[in-house]
From TrEMBL:
<dbReference type="InterPro" id="IPR029063">
    <property type="entry name" value="SAM-dependent_MTases_sf"/>
</dbReference>
<keyword id="KW-0489">Methyltransferase</keyword>
<dbReference type="GO" id="GO:0032259">
    <property type="term" value="P:methylation"/>
</dbReference>
<dbReference type="Pfam" id="PF13489">
    <property type="entry name" value="Methyltransf_23"/>
</dbReference>
<dbReference type="GO" id="GO:0008168">
    <property type="term" value="F:methyltransferase activity"/>
</dbReference>
<keyword id="KW-0808">Transferase</keyword>
<protein>
    <submittedName>
        <fullName>Class I SAM-dependent methyltransferase</fullName>
    </submittedName>
</protein>
Length: 191
């Protein structure tokens, strides 16, 4: 069998092009697609990296964005990002993500939108995560990351194809079915 590749020469050779295209696609799906809910809301962004996604949610109209990132080196980069007039709405913290969710819930804080970016890989029991998130009373939970593509509720073992910051040699990847089961058990409605 012959396969014809119609990809323009050199298109995928540039990591910069691939990253830019991926960022734009993620932004369209995860921010633009929910702008009507994000506007005038409080957002808790888990897995905030260096804060650039915090800016995206603030620019989409969020009144306050609290970003939580376990890697302090990434959080330190936030001060080097250009201030585009939104920084006063952003609080970026270096902390354990699950511990921070629990602390926010115990403090009685509520968030309209909770965003999970690449934090469920190898996570503590999913039920713990979703019960903790439910205690924040969000109207919307957005999840993005690497998930096993099956509706069976499983945790798959995945070996990274290349080195990934903070990842061990093998990691647990939740399936769509596992996330659906844990979130339903916590009381969420799925869409």
């Amino acid at each position: 069998m012959t396969v014809q590749d119609q990809t323009p020469n050199g298109f995928f050779e540039s990591d910069i092009n691939m990253m830019a295209n991926r960022m734009q696609a993620r932004h369209a799906m995860l921010v633009d697609g929910f702008r009507h809910v994000i506007a005038d809301s409080t957002v808790l962004l888990l897995g905030a990296e260096d804060g650039r996604w915090c800016y995206s949610f603030a620019a989409a109209g969020a009144l306050q964005v609290v970003g939580v990132e376990p890697c302090s080196a990434l959080v330190e980069r936030f001060s080097r990002l250009p201030d585009i007039g939104l920084r006063e709405r952003i609080d970026l913290r270096s902390a354990d993500v699950l511990a921070e969710i629990i602390a926010e819930a115990h403090a009685g804080r509520r968030y309209d939108v909770v965003v999970l970016f690449d934090v469920l890989e190898g996570a503590a029991p999913l039920h713990d995560w979703f019960h903790a998130i439910m205690a924040l009373h969000p109207r919307l939970v957005i999840g993005d990351g690497l998930f096993a593509t099956t509706h069976d509720p499983i945790m798959a073992l995945e070996k990274p194809r290349r080195p990934i910051h903070g990842a061990t040699a093998t990691r647990l990847i939740p399936s769509h079915g596992a996330i659906a089961m844990a979130s339903r058990d916590a009381g969420f409605d799925l869409d």
